[in-house]
């Protein structure tokens, strides 16, 4: 009996020693640990996290006190992540800003976590790591400020150029100069393309710096889809774009930004599908959410690219796409807009048969 007890004490001692070493390694790497009780929502955080928030090291910190230190624009997102993690067992990976309660300084942090369950599947603990990413975020903000400044500077000459194109086009039409008219049309198309790219860079800069705010209103989603389809039809004479019949669905969201998401998906379908192909748009409800899909009969996307389509500046580079212009910004912006609506965006595809892009939004 004494032998067993001695063995157990030795095992426990080694486990405690390993735990202490792991804790030291985590804190040396400017990280902390946290855990939440799924039933009581009682929070346990390490000393590193308390220092980040500016809480006394000997204080038992409540969930309410932590939320008060997190900037308000992230409250809804974090509440949704927490409820989904506990209810559905989803892993989480979030970034948000906080205010140090002692110094008033703003810090950027990243928190990753997962739910640990009992043998019968009951959530037992929601825990993970907490990292200080302030320096990286500040670098990103400086970079985005530079992009925004350069983009603004580039827009001014393009606006002037567009005005001169309009003036010259009027003269050419009066003189029935078909060659000049055709040349100006081509120049105008390139100016329009460049303006679109600059606006996309500006939107990335505004999005990352938190200057893009959602202006939610109630509207009929089907009508917005029809508007975007009408605009897309003007840009192509070789595609048939249709909205499949369905029930009228009203949602509360930022109409202009959801419109830009639909416009981007339609533009991609046009660019990446052969001439004369059908593009179908569908809108339907699934439980407490609405799902929009844009299906084309294009070249398709390999499975290894699907998970990265919504990364910033990511493009699928193949011999079939080399001639297609773009910087990999549109899908990134679309993904960010949908995420800020507490929605989801994804794609399904098969090489040679086409792709379908989906996004879902909650019905309030």
Automatic annotation (TrEMBL):
Organism superkingdom: Bacteria
UniProt catalytic activity: ATP + protein L-histidine = ADP + protein N-phospho-L-histidine
Keywords: Kinase, Membrane, Phosphoprotein, Transferase, Two-component regulatory system
Gene Ontology MF, one: phosphorelay sensor kinase activity
PROSITE patterns: HIS_KIN (PS50109), PAC (PS50113), PAS (PS50112)
GO cellular component terms, semicolon-separated: plasma membrane
Span of domain PAS: 18-89
Cross-referenced NCBIfam families: sensory_box
Listed name of the protein: histidine kinase
Organism: Mucilaginibacter pedocola
